[in-house]
Every structure is written in structure tokens, then in C-alpha cells.
Please model this.
Amino acid sequence: MEKLKILFAVVFSLGTASAASLGVVQTEGGAVQGRNIPLGLFRSVDVFKGIPFAAQPGTLEKPKAHPGWNGILKATKFAPRCLQMSMLQTSSFGSEDCLYLNIWVPHGRQVSSNLPVMIWLYGGGFMVGGSMGANFLNNYLYSGQEIADKGGVIVVSVGYRVGTLGFLSTGDSGLPGNYGLWDQHAAIAWVHRNIGSFGGDPENITIFGESAGGASVSFQTLSPHNKGLVKRAISQSGVAFCPWAMSRNPRKVAEEVAVNVGCPTDDRMVDCLKSTDAKTLTMAAPRVTQGSPDSPGVTNLLLSPVVDGDFLPDRPENLFHNAADIDYIAGVNDMDGHLFTSQDIPSLGNKNKETPVEDVKRLLAAYSKELGPAAMEIAFAEYSSNWGSTPTQDTIKRSAVDIGTDYIFLVPIQTAIYLHAANARSGRTFSYMLSEPSLMAGPGKPYHDWVGSDHADDLQYVFGKPFTTPKAYGDRHRALSGYMIAYWTNFARTGNPNKGNLQVPAMWPEFTSTEQQFLEINGKMNESSTGHEMRLRFVRLWTSTLPSLASRDVTEAQ
Ligand SMILES: *[C@@H]1O[C@H](CO)[C@@H](O)[C@H](O)[C@H]1NC(C)=O
Ligand SMILES: *[C@@H]1O[C@H](CO)[C@@H](O)[C@H](O)[C@H]1NC(C)=O
Model:
């Protein structure tokens, strides 16, 4: 009888403990109710899906405040993605009514308060993507649940416009562009105003993102409009300096789109574009075509942010004072270029095909074409300096991947890191390289044995997939996922990835202008997994040697 009583008491307290939940939450627009998911003894997470942070935006206009609602909004379903082209670029899906966010709030015995907040900005080349990410069997890639539960932080993921609707611009006040960036900013501002009611600390907001999302994070920190809203930021495999991150000739693209939808290209163009049906506009975007060594795929991404004199008052390199008090992590996957280079040079990814050295030279020539006629040979000499007289196919192919990784990601990311550290006041800087071997590499698998972390490989680890789908991964992947969640959430909590609720396997040294250190992250990392001056020889090649050639050519031509 006594035992039964104790059992009863335990069951009863378990019942109440697992019920720690925010219930109905008041936001500026009205009341919302999510769903509480019990995760174990005294642990649960409240999930809110599809909360509007702005009204449905006008076509090619900045987002506007949401008018609010009566009653309780049931926040239990993801909102549609923003209107975008399908994978095959033959149709569109999604909605113009897409400015919604999702929130994951972890609880222990008691309802949480004052938690650090992490806001996720998805990638997709500014052309595609959604706040929930790809979905396999109701397991959404960008579910914030693992990060929230393990790290004790609130995770928010937000929708923003992409493609023509997000980034079409005439390069002047007619169509200033950057609509997708304004959406992200509106979401950040909403979180700052409202997250307190969800148990979050509005003064401890970290934004993080990957690829175009990483570049978005970079733009958000550089814009004067986020002053005081963002405390920290993490850019994974993308920054403002990436060659695909800014439109070079937005007017030309706008005219091409205008022609595609039957609008005139004179002073009637803007009004005509704005009154064009959103689906038609979406399908009128320049197609992202298969690349070749002479015309690499990334150079086909034409709809992206621009210097608009408002959100971005100047070129990114002149805006780092706005990020001077923001703590910043930026990093790259060691083979981030593999996905792209093996599209541009199809033989590269084929285990049974040889890649001609000529193709490597053509790719380099395409990347360096604005840097003068001598650039390709000088760059090639650097990349082939370890080849010896008879390089193996693996050596040639790996060099091609290095070229893609350096040009598309690594060098621009290093540039951003150096500038952040050089301009910092209170803000700290941390640099990483992810070097976990690809799950697709090895005998009997599609990729060459030597393929490391490809573009987007980091996502599964940051979002804890080795824990949610354990059968698809090994123990080293769960270790790696745990490490990344620890560094990321510690950073969100304290501004220092080494300090917080979770233990880390190695001390991540700060990057400073005098000591350019970085952390190498993988499933077998240990205290020695640090390095310094990441690929400095190649950073110098692209940021100093080759540009100085180009300016010499210009001087000689004058
Ligand atoms: C953020 O959270 C930390 C740890 O809880 C706290 O010390 C700090 O005051 C908070 N605010 C800011 C702006 O860092
Ligand atoms: C750390 O890892 C490296 C690379 O795997 C290895 O060579 C080294 O022996 C390890 N060091 C320690 C102290 O375990």
C-alpha cells in the first residue's frame, strides 16, 4: 500500500512535470497556441508553427506589419514556402503569403524563461528554400527540436522571399531589390519584440544560416537596420563576398525578366512588373543552367542581394563597423566546392572517368577571367605545385575541388572573417573548417574515397539528424552532431563556443588579427584539432596576387 502510494506520487509528479508548457502565448498580433511534445523525464518542447511575422507582402515591395487576428491562432502547421520554382524549373509552388516563422521552446521541470534565441535562415541560392527544409517521413531537415532540447535554447526558423519576388532589382530606386533581406529583417525584429513572451531573451539573439542563408546572416550583420537586434551570428558556407551572393548587373536581369513576361523595358517597366501575376514573375527568372568548365554553374545565380543604398548603404567591405559588437562564427566545409565542381566537370565525380588537366585549366580561366590574361596560368601554377611530373587522377580531381571550394566559399569566407576581426569592438570572431568525410564516399558508394565535407553536409549535424534518424548514421556522426550543437548553442548563450551548458571536445581559439586560428571540426576531433592561417597561400592568391595583376593590366592599358 505504501509502495503504491509512492508509485502514485511519482506518476503524478511525472505527469505534471512533463506538462511544463507555455500554453497560449500573447503576441503583438494576437494569441497563439502551439503543441507540447514530451521528450522524456522532465523534458519537453513547445512547438509553434506558422506564426505570421508580417502581412502578405505586395509584389516587389517591402514587407508590412501584420494586422493581427482575433481569437487563438492554432500554430500547429508549417506555412507554405514562399513562391518558387520547382526543382526542374518547369513549374512553381508555394505562396506569396509566406512570411511566417516557427518556434521551438525547450522546457525542463518548469516553464523556461530568458533563454538564448537562435534564428535560422535557410539556403537555396536565393532562388529556393523553406523554413522547414526538406521533409523525409515527417522528419523536417530544419526542425529546431534537437538543437532546442540539447542546447537549452529557443530555435526560430523564418520564411523569406526568393527568386524574382525576393530579389528582382533595377539597381536604382525604381525597384531597389533586397525584398528577401527585408523579410528576414522583419522576422528578426518580430522575434526581438515578441520572444520574451515565449521565454526568450531578446538581448541574446543569434542568427545562423547556411549557404545563401549564411550570406544572408552576413548581410543582416552588415546592415545598419539590425543595430541592437542581433547579438551574435553564425555563417555556415556563405558570406556577402561569395561570388554568387550579390547581383553584378541587376538592371540587365530585370530587363530580361520584363521581356519574358511581356513588359516594356523603358520607364513603364517597374509598374508593369509590379502588376504582373506573381507566378508568372516567378517562372520568368533566368534559369539556373547546368554548368561547364567554361561557364561554371554558380555564375548562373543572377537574382541576389544588391547595394540598394538603404538595407545595404554601401559595398559589404565598407559596412563592418555595423558588426563591430556582434560575436561572429564563420566557416567552410573542406570540400564545399565538390557539389559544384563535379557538375561543371562531370568526369570529376565519375570513378571510371579521367578528368583532363585541360578542364581544370578551363575552370580556372572562367573563375579568373576578370583578373586579366595572365591570371589563369599563375593560379594554375599554384594549384599544381604539388603535382610532380605525373599527377594521379585523384590529385588532379582533388585540385579541381580545391579550386571550386576556394573560389566559391573558402576565400570569401576568410575575407569576411579577417574584416570582422579587424573592425571588431566588443565582438569576437571564430573560424572553423568542417572536415568530416562524406557519407557518400568510399568503396561501393558513389563518391571518390577522398571526398570530405561537401556543400550542405553540415546541416544534418547542426540539426541533430544522427540522433533523430540513428540508423542512417554511426557513432562518430552522433559525436560530431553533439559537438556542433554544443559549440553553436554555447556560442548563442555566452558568445564563446567553449562556454555554456554543454561540454566541447576541444578548446576553440578565438580568431584575431594577429593570430588567425581556426577549429577543425569532425567526428574524431581532439584537443589538437586547431590550425591557423587557413589556406593562406590560396587566400593570398585570390585576394592579393591575382587582383594586383588585374589592376596592373588596367594601368598598362591606359
Ligand atoms: C545573455 O545571456 C547571458 C547568460 O544568461 C547573460 O549573462 C547576458 O546578460 C545576456 N544578455 C546579453 C546581452 O548578453
Ligand atoms: C588527435 O587526432 C589526430 C588526428 O586524428 C591524431 O593524429 C592525434 O594522435 C590525436 N591526438 C590525441 C592527443 O589524441
About this structure: The first helix runs from residue 2 to 17. Residues 2-557 form a domain with the Rossmann fold fold (CATH 3.40.50.1820).
